[in-house]
Amino acid sequence: MPTLMTQPNFVETTIAEPEIRETLENILGEQRSGVLATSFMDIPLCSQMAFVTSHDLRTIIIVTPRKTAKYDNMSSNPNVSFLVSTARNDPSDPASAQALTVTAFATELDGERRHKAVTLFSRKHPNLSAFAAASDSAVMELKVDSYCLVNNFQQLTRIGLG
């Protein structure tokens, strides 16, 4: 088990760094859900969400019914964050788990872009394909602004898209 870092350590890099890109691909590819954070009138709301990431890691796709607080929140304030964690509720998590926070701008997709997003989402979540394709479901594109990776307890890496 790695030794926990007791002092915060901060590094900046870009998605073009091969080791960082591989880490992002592993976390985002292996995890099936994350936590969406939205806000309305400074009142935060967190929602567990299934997701899929585009190949270039610049877009995250989520699907939600339109008649939800999270949809209303994204409609009025499209600035969101999305947390993906590898934690397993295990005592080793502080040393071994990774948490990836994404800052993004949410937009509802329509037309051909919606169709492509539903196809991509359904490949990762075949059990949710009917939900994703339903006309009353909003297919949301989270346009990534940046990533922030925390591992080894306090090792923080801010990752720009470069």
TrEMBL record:
<dbReference type="InterPro" id="IPR012349">
    <property type="entry name" value="Split_barrel_FMN-bd"/>
</dbReference>
<dbReference type="InterPro" id="IPR011576">
    <property type="entry name" value="Pyridox_Oxase_N"/>
</dbReference>
<protein>
    <recommendedName>
        <fullName>Pyridoxamine 5'-phosphate oxidase N-terminal domain-containing protein</fullName>
    </recommendedName>
</protein>
<feature type="domain" description="Pyridoxamine 5'-phosphate oxidase N-terminal">
    <location>
        <begin position="21"/>
        <end position="145"/>
    </location>
</feature>
<dbReference type="Pfam" id="PF01243">
    <property type="entry name" value="PNPOx_N"/>
</dbReference>
